[in-house]
Amino acid sequence: MTRKTVRIAMNGVTGRMGYRQHLLRSILALREQGGLDVGGGMVIWPEPVLVGRAEHKLAAMAHRHGLTEWSTDLDTVLADDSIDIYFDAQVTAAREEAVKKAIAAGKHLYVEKPTATGLAGALELARLAHAAGIKHGVVQDKIFLPGLLKLKRLIEGGFFGRILSIRGEFGYWVFEGDWQEAQRPSWNYRAEDGGGIATDMFPHWEYVLHELFGPVRTVQAQLATHIPRRWDEAGKPYEATADDAAYGIFELAGGAVAQINSSWAVRVNRDELVEFQVDGTEGSAVAGLRRCRVQHRSATPKPVWNPDLPATEDFRAQWQEVPDNETFDNGFKEQWALFLRHVVLDEPWRWDLMAGARGVHLAELGIRSAQEGRRLDVPELSL
């Protein structure tokens, strides 16, 4: 068995997503299983080099997981010719400059989204990476969720007939931070630090819609800051300057309409934290993180509107569960495996920095739509 070591500079792993999903549940999980077996007697062995600003946090993390390499000096790490990939999970405002340095150093790139704070920056990164001839990828984790993989199976199998509409609900109540600690960092609620739920979530909805249903052609959005006062990590109050809820309507190529609500100020009355209902001429489905339920045209009941009598039907019980039919692994890990195969074996890859730019573009247009109070076209992007 040949072991191909791939050294990855992982910047931002002291943050919530960088640590839990990318380091712990992806890279370290691949190492725990003996590496990524790609067949032909080869195993890809990811070797993380932890990068960040907090020396004590990096040292403690490295010690906890038996890692030996960490640094607070990004320039020195990027100057190391043995580093193959630069990964970035920093706050969005810090990402653009660091990614440019990695491109200049000739490193392959794998980055979280949004890839930049604005479309101009996102397109510049895509163009620089393309000109440098390096491999580049953007995390698009939600299309690897079991529920959405089942949904994709239904779409490819023609279950829906002509798809008419998609309705999405995402969110949960993020504690204000005064008497219960907030589940999200305070910068998420400061526009000057790159915060805002539209900036955060519209890039997700762009790739989910694009991948499953087709490109977004128009956007109309309404943004709100429902909770104007919050408390930061030190327990100090601050004024929220970024939106904590975004309500979007997206017209897709082919005519389907998607309505997606995103909110950090909503209490959950769903089976999962995100759910999408897809309605088509031949059937409907409701997909979440893991589950997917369907109702075919032939089994659709006949509800009758009568507000004078209590409902006697259990509407949820009229839907059929879509079976797993396969073993689903962590979505972040699955995409990491595909990117490693792309880097080492040159296998196909389509979630590049231009895909990331599309997400930034949709967020930017959504914010502008809300500011101007009108629907906006979403033109195609090019290098």
Structure description:
- This protein has 383 residues and is an alpha/beta fold.
- The mean pLDDT is 96.
Rg of Cα set? 22 Å
The helix/strand series, from N terminus to C terminus, equals EHEEHEHEHEHEHEHEEEEEEEEEHHE
Strand order of the largest sheet: 17-16-15-14-8-13-12-9-18
Oligomer: single chain
- What sort of overall outline do the alpha carbons produce when their principal axes are compared? globular
- How many angstroms does the end-to-end distance come to? 41 Å
Number of helices: 9
List keywords for this structure.
9-stranded mixed beta sheet, 7-stranded mixed beta sheet, 25% strand, 18 strands, 383 residues, single chain, alpha/beta, globular
Describe this structure in a few short sentences:
By secondary structure, this protein is α/β, with parallel strands linked by helices. It has nine helices and 18 strands.
